[in-house]
Design a protein that fits this description.
The complex is a heterodimer of chains A (405) and B (150). Chain A has two domains: 133 residues, Aspartate Aminotransferase, domain 1; 254 residues, 3-Layer(aba) Sandwich (Aspartate Aminotransferase, domain 2), CATH 3.40.640.10. Chain A is built from 15 helices and 17 strands. In chain A, a hairpin with a 2-residue loop joins strand 1 and strand 2. In chain A, helix 2 packs antiparallel against helix 11, helix 3 packs across helix 11 and helix 12 runs parallel beside helix 15. Chain B has one domain: Sufe protein. Chain: A, CATH 3.90.1010.10. Chain B is 47% helix and 11% strand. In chain B, strand 2 and strand 3 form a beta hairpin. Classes of the chains: A alpha/beta (405), B mainly alpha (150). The complex binds pyridoxal-5'-phosphate (PLP).
Chain lengths: 405, 150
């Protein structure tokens, strides 16, 4: 893989911010889009746009073909069995809410929902609401000092009472890669429904839902180098066909009368209203783009960045890293002695370096480490080793100027 | 106990004025100096009483913690502020806000063009609604407080 060529596919990276070349290290919040994605969407708007699934005209047929073709692309990229298992959502958050909503009538007092302390709020709050409404109990898998999931805590809390097991495959704060496949298998053995939050995993590791063997898998387009406003909920087809509908209205119905309404099968029963057509096409284009670059090449490029980060961190006085798991994606959550993360963010921004600061929508995890937030630099394959150096040199400069070290 | 002198014992908005801040900024060349100056201003924030760091005094912002309390001098009718934050740049920006607003009557306070000042100092991005650092919310809260007394 020729990195220079790859970078040229991301025109947004070629700009100056505050008079310095942009160094974009906020990829875990949202990744940049390759030209191919923008082109596919523009071309769709210029040549094909029309509503899907309903036109009695050629444009509508072509739009539908592109839209359903995008669904098939996603199916093949995550290795689902059928395109009917691919539901378009607005993103990870909506996917989780859709699944949680399906439990409102079936969960009851005494049932348990098991999540972990490193979950994004999107994989906590919908379950908390569900527990409140049904009388079920929300249980939490603890995290070790290194930032791994505590497997003892997992085994201790899993039981026949566990009806839902919802876990992130990769931590957005720590970068930890969780042993999701084993944990899903263990949870299924006690009869729990399993949901995997793939928002952070899929951009780095891809996804194979048959190998994972989970009931549900969710992710967002915008973190996967695709557009905002689109995401995917994968679910097993038999399960989806009996899963309670979420939003209702047009597109998702089979027959409507004032005596009663019947619904379509999956995926349409979960896609009420006109969908985000261009965005779905954009997301499929992004996934094909990554596939063309080659997932092994992407992993290799990222591993090189991760190693450079490790080298710097190993010898950086005053820098505390959160997340020391053996198995991780290139994310650095840290605290620099004597400087609040929010100050760091501002001072790095002055040097053209974009990171994120705060609790990263993971307040319970922050509590675990006894901090209010961290500064987080998150890397993507289009970042360069030179950018890693620029980032750490920027930190050194800030440290020297503002902490007197 | 927070007493009146907690509030009045400061140079911000009295001895130090927005003119001084403008003059100060004029002398600064690059971002290092600018932010160094801002952080130095933050060091002038009067001490914030520990027991006032309570939920009801907390200004909700995303990235840093900000606390705000006020006291109205019954004799002069002037409003005095105390602000605290755990982030140095936010403290510095809070000091600039205090310099502009502290120790004024509610009417005078409401007439101050804080946005104009921040624009002039090229700091607007810090109090624009897009930055989740609580400063915007703080300015709005101070104005709402002043409004209550008019
Ligand atoms: C692990 C994880 N889950 C869920 C989400 C929510 O994703 P979205 O905001 O795209 O719905 C995020 C985004 O930050 C995330 O990192």
């Amino acid at each position: 893989m020729n990195l220079e060529q790859v970078r040229a596919d991301f025109p947004i990276l070629e700009q100056e911010v505050n008079g310095k070349p942009l160094v974009y290290l906020d990829n875990a919040a949202s990744a940049q889009k390759p030209q191919a994605v923008m082109d596919a969407m523009t071309q769709y708007f210029r040549e094909t746009h029309s509503n899907v699934h309903r036109g009695a005209h050629s444009l509508g047929d072509r739009a539908t073909a592109l839209f359903e073709g995008a669904r098939e692309t996603v199916r093949s990229q995550i290795n689902a069995t059928s395109a009917n298992e691919i539901i378009w959502t607005r993103g990870t958050t909506e996917g989780i809410n859709l699944v949680a909503n399906g439990f409102y009538r079936s969960l009851k007092q005494g049932d348990e929902i098991l999540v972990s302390r490193m979950e994004h709020h999107a994989n906590i709050v919908p379950w908390q609401m569900l527990a409140e409404a049904t009388g079920a109990t929300l249980k939490v898998i603890e995290v070790t000092a290194d930032g791994d999931l505590d497997q003892q805590s997992f085994r201790d809390q899993l039981s026949e009472r566990t009806k839902v097991f919802a876990i992130t495959a990769v931590s957005n704060v720590l970068g930890t890669i969780n042993p999701t496949q084993e944990m899903v298998a263990t949870a299924k053995a006690v009869g729990a429904y399993t949901l995997v939050d793939g928002a952070q995993a899929i951009p780095h590791l891809g996804a194979d839902v048959q190998a994972l063997d989970c009931d549900f898998y969710v992710f967002s387009g915008h973190k996967l180098f695709g557009p905002t406003g689109i995401g995917v909920l994968y679910g097993r087809e038999d399960l989806l066909n009996e899963w309670p509908v979420y939003q209702t209205g047009g597109e998702m119905i089979h027959r409507v009368s004032f005596e009663g309404t019947s619904f379509q099968k999956a995926p349409y029963r979960f896609e009420a209203g006109t969908p985000a057509i261009a965005e779905a096409i954009g997301l499929a284009t992004a996934m094909r783009y990554l596939d063309d670059l080659g997932h092994d090449n992407l992993r290799e490029a990222e591993a090189a960045l991760g190693r450079r980060v490790d080298e710097w961190v190993a010898d950086f006085p005053g820098l505390t890293r959160y997340g020391q798991a053996q198995n991780k994606v290139p994310v650095l959550s840290f605290w620099l002695e004597g400087l609040h993360p929010s100050d760091l963010g501002t001072l790095l921004d002055q040097q053209g370096i974009a990171i994120r600061t705060g609790h990263h929508c993971c307040m319970p995890l922050m509590e675990h480490f006894g901090i209010a937030g961290t500064a987080r630099a998150s890397f993507a394959f289009y970042n360069t080793v030179e950018e890693v150096d620029t980032f750490f040199q920027g930190l050194q400069r800030i440290q020297r100027l503002f902490t007197g070290k | 106990m927070t007493t009146d002198t907690n509030f009045t014992n400061t140079e911000l908005g009295t001895d130090i004025t927005t003119e001084d801040v403008r003059d100060g900024f004029e002398l600064l060349d690059d971002w290092e100096e600018r932010y160094g100056y801002i952080m130095d201003l933050g060091k002038k924030l009067p001490a914030f009483p520990d027991d006032e760091r309570r939920e009801e005094n907390y200004v909700h912002g995303c990235q840093s913690q900000v606390w705000l309390i006020h006291w109205k001098d019954p004799e002069s009718g002037r409003l005095y502020l105390l602000i605290d934050s755990d982030a140095m740049i936010v403290r510095g920006l809070a000091a600039i806000i205090m310099i502009a607003l502290n120790g004024r009557t509610p009417e005078d306070l409401l007439a101050v063009d804080i946005e104009g000042l921040f624009e002039e100092l090229d700091l607007m991005r810090h109090i624009s609604p897009t930055r989740g650092n609580g400063l915007r919310a703080m300015v709005e809260q101070i104005r709402a407080t002043a409004q209550q007394y008019t």
